[in-house]
Amino acid sequence: MVSIGESNMPGSIVELGNNKYKLVVSCGYKNGPQVRRCKTVEARTKAAVNKKLAVFYAQVQGEMQKKQRQNVRPAVRTKMTVTDLIDVWTEKYGSTLSPTTAQSDKINIKNNILPYIGKRQADAIKADDVLWLIAELRNRPKMRDPTKKLSETTVHSVYKLLRSIYNRCIEWGLVDKNPCEEIPVYQRPKPAESKTPFYQYDEFKRFMQAVRELKDTPTNVKQKLLLFLAFQDVCRRGEMYALTWDRVDFEQSVFKIEESSYYVPGQGINTKDPKTKSSKRELAFGARIKELFLKHKENQEAHLKSRNLKNPQNWIFVRTRGIKSGENVKILDLSSFYNWLQDFIARNNFNHMTVHGWRHMGATYSLARGVDLGTVKDNMGHSDLKTTSRYLHPITVAKKGAAKEMDNLIDETITANDEINSQC
Predict the structure, then answer these.
(1) In angstroms, how far is CA 275 from the centroid of its own chain?
(2) Helix (H, G, I), strand (E, B) or coil at 397
(3) Are the C-beta atoms of residues 121 and 81 closer than 8 Å to each other?
(4) What pLDDT is attached to residue 2?
(5) What is the pLDDT of residues 323-340, one digit of tens each?
C-alpha cells in the first residue's frame, strides 16, 4: 500500500493495488485527533483518481456545510451577544482547527475579546467598536510581565480571529456584516516584523569549533544531534521531537518526517500531522548525523535498561525524569534543546540564537554551498518557493565574493579592450 503523488485538491490518495485507491479527506479536528472521511474507488489512471478525489472532497465539504446550516437558528440572531456568537463558532468550526491553533484562539477569546465586547449585541458591533478594542488591547499590560504592553503581533492575532469569527457567522446567517472589514486598511493592526537571528560566517565558524570541543556526554550527544538536525536537515522543532527509531534507515542514511509534536497546557505533549502536506518528507543525513544517531541510540538503550524504563513508541528523544521503573518514557520536553542552546551561548559569549534560527541558517548556507533552491524547498517541507525565500539571509562573505567577481568581470573586459587596441 503506497501513497501516490499529491493532487491539486485537498485530500490524499493511497494506492491499494489492482486499480483500487483509498481517498482521504480531512474534516478537521475533534477533541484532539484529526477526523478523516475515507472512500475506496476504482480508476485506471492518475487523472481519473484525482477527479474522483475532487468529487469526494466537494461532497464532504457540502455535507459539512449543510450540517452547520441546519444547526443554526436564525430566529435568535438578533438577541445574540458576541459571547453567543463565539459559542456557536467554537461549536461548529472550532473542531476543524489544529490543537495548537484552538488553544491559542481559546486564550485570545478569553483574555482579549470577551472581557471587552462579550456582552455587546453581536450585530450591533461597528467598526468604531473594533477600533476601540484595538486601542484597549494596545494599552493592556502583558499578564506575564505587567511592565510591558501587549505586542502588535498579539493585537493583530486578536483582530484576525474576530474577523474570521464574523466571516464564518455571516456564512451561517447569524450576522449580516463584518465590522472588522469596515475598518480602513491603514488602521488595521499589522504583525510586528520579527528578525530571525543569524550567524555570519565568522561567528558560525567559532560556534561550530566550540561545539566540536564539547565532551561526548549523553546529554551533549543528544543536544548536538538536535542541533545538526535543525541545521543540516532544516527540521522544525516539533518534527525533531516526534522522530521515532523505526523511521530512521541507517543503511540508506535517510529518515522520514511523518509527525510533529506540540504542547497544550493541561494536556502535555502530543503529536499530530506535520504543518502541511509537503512537510511529510524523507530527508538524507550525512556521516556526522549518522554517528550522532548511533551514539545517542546506544546511550539511550543503556540508560533505559539501567532504570528498567520502556519506550514502546520508539521515541528518539525521550524524557526519563520523574518516570518510575517499569513505566513508559515520554517525549522530551520541547524546551530542552532551547534551554541547552541558551546555556551554551551564554558560556561561550555568542550572540542570541533560537532553534528556528538554525533552520534559517541551514537553508541559507545550503544555497551558499551550491545546493539548488528546489532541493532546499523540499528539505524544508515547503509547498512553494515563496515561503522558502523568506528564510534566506544575506551572507557578508558571499556579498564580498560577488563584488570581487564583478570586479573581475570588468577587469576582463578592460583587458580584452586593451588587447584589441594594441593590435590596431
Answers:
(1) 5
(2) helix
(3) yes
(4) 45
(5) 999 999 999 999 999 999
| 39 DSSP β-pair partners | 23
Separation between Cα atoms, residue 344 and residue 361, nearest integer Å: 18
Q: In sequence order, what are the beta bridge partners of 40? A: 22
| CA dihedral for 332, 287, 384, 244, sign (positive or negative) | negative
Q: Could you count the other beta carbons within 10 Å of the beta carbon of residue 327? A: 13
Distance CA 307, CA 310 (A): 9
Please identify which residue in the block is written with the cell numbers 484529526.
34
The gap from C-alpha 361 to its chain's centroid, in whole angstroms, comes to 17
310 φ/ψ angles, rounded to the nearest 5 degrees: -110, 150
The CA distances from residue 376 to 231, 349, 368, 380, in Å, are 12, 30, 11, 6
Report pLDDT digits (tens) over 279-291. 999 999 999 999 9
Rounded (10°) angle between helices 287-307 and 218-231: 140
Q: Which residues contact 393 (CB under 8 A, 6 or more apart)?
A: 196, 198, 360, 361, 364
Q: What is the pTM of this model?
A: 0.68
Which among 358, 398, 367 has a CA at the least distance from the CA of 385?
A: 367
234-262 pLDDT, tens digit each: 999 999 999 999 999 999 999 999 999 98
CA-closest candidate to residue 82, choices 133, 38, 31, 20: 133
Q: What is the DSSP letter of 23?
A: E
SS3 368: helix
| 283 contacts 235 by C-beta, under 8 angstroms | yes
Three-state DSSP state, 271 = strand
> What's the first-to-final CA gap in the chain, in angstroms?
74
Ranges of the chain with pLDDT below 50: 1-3, 5-8, 75-76
> What's the DSSP call for residue 290?
H
Element (H, E) at 269: strand 268-272
Cα–Cα distance measured from residue 234 to residue 284, given in angstroms and rounded to the nearest whole number: 11
pLDDT score, position 415: 66
Chain centroid offset of residue 424 CA: 65
218-231 helix and 336-348 helix, angle to the nearest 10 degrees? 100
CA pair distance 261, 238, nearest whole angstrom: 4
Bridge partners, residue 263, by sequence: 269
- Cα Rg of the chain (Å, integer): 27
Q: What are phi and psi of 93, to 5 degrees?
A: -120, -25
CA 327 to chain centre: 31
Residue 317 corresponds to which cell in the numbers above? 528523544
Distance CA 318, CA 222 (A): 10
